[in-house]
Amino acid sequence: MFTPILLATVARTVEWSPEIGLIMIICNIAAIAFGKSTIQNPHTGPAAPSSNLVGGLSLGALVGSLCFGHILGTGTILGLSYLGAI
C-alpha cells in the first residue's frame, strides 16, 4: 500500500560524470575553507597527513569539514539536477 507513495518521493539520481566530480570537489574545498575560518580550535588533536595542504587543520577538523563538504555537495548536485542544470 505504501510502496507507490515511497517510490514517488525518491529523488532522481544523476549518473556520475566529471562535471559531478568537479561540483563535489568545489564543495569540499569550500567546506575546508569554511571550517578553517569557523572552527575555534582547528589545530587541537592529531595532525592530518599532509596538514600543510589543508591549512594546518587537525585530523578531526579535516574529517568534519569533509563530511560537511559531502553533505553540501550532495545537496548541490541534487538541487542542480532537480532544476535540470546538470
TrEMBL record:
Q: Which domain of life is it from?
A: Bacteria
Q: Which UniProt keywords apply?
A: Membrane, Photosynthesis, Photosystem I, Thylakoid, Transmembrane, Transmembrane helix
Question: Transmembrane stretches, by residue range?
Answer: 20-39, 59-83
Pfam families per the UniProt record, alphabetical: PSI_PSAK
InterPro entries annotated for this entry?
Answer: PSI_centre_PsaK_sf, PSI_PsaG/PsaK, PSI_PsaK, PSI_PsaK_bact
Membrane topology (UniProt):
Multi-pass membrane protein
Q: Where in the cell is it found?
A: Cellular thylakoid membrane; Membrane
Q: Name the family.
A: Belongs to the PsaG/PsaK family.
Fetch the NCBIfam families from UniProt: PS_I_psaK (TIGR03049)
Q: What is this protein called?
A: Photosystem I reaction center subunit PsaK
Q: Which organism is this entry from? A: Microcoleus asticus IPMA8
What gene is this protein translated from? psaK_2
